[in-house]
Fold:
Amino acid sequence: MNHSSEVVELDWTGHGISVAHRATRGLREPSPPIEQREILYEDLDAGIVVGSSLFCPASTQMKSEWKDELLTVQQGRATIELADGGTISVQAGDTAFISAGTAHRWIYHESFAKEFLWLLESESGVPTAIKIDPELELSPSRSPGNDVLLTDTPECKSKILYQRTDGRLTLMLWSSTPYRRRSASHAKHELMRFISGAARLRQAHGRTFSCGPGYGVFVPVGADVAWENDTDVLKIACFVS
Structure:
């Protein structure tokens, strides 16, 4: 488990603790251990948990949880069933978001692995559950400032997908033309999932993370990170304060 300013790569390693859930299908026990969970970063004072999980085929009970969850499926298929009768189907490569207070249950159709970010907070706004569509149209947005840029100002675009009314979490799609910026301290926690293009993140101590399509990385608040992308890049970005 990590609680530092080190950048964290997101991936299921095959390790973790057993976690029981109230299941309704496929298992005899009322609360069987259907999940193996690995915590990669945890700051309970801030209510932030980042990790990965592996589930066996099963269904959970309908319930509402006091946490926002951003998740990306690494393997398998599942259905998120909502209290209003709606459903969201997810499979490997999909990213979804479920806000605190949204009543739902999971149906895991097969062995299912995901990486996740949780914000352990009460609901803040209308209960929301979405699967992120990377084809959504983006609008021009603010570019990095001249105080950090090492190249010409890039053209940046974004679309906010969800924002807590208390301002603690903002989820968006973000794109940029090529640019480089010097190392700077991250003002917020950020989980990023790359959809297209490639970028390099370099920490102050010298470690470099090469990020391409499907790559997920968590940058904690306070991390000193430089950025460089030689091609246009599109990513999902979730900022937490």
Notes: The longest strand covers residues 33-43. The mean pLDDT is 92. The chain has no helices and 23 strands.
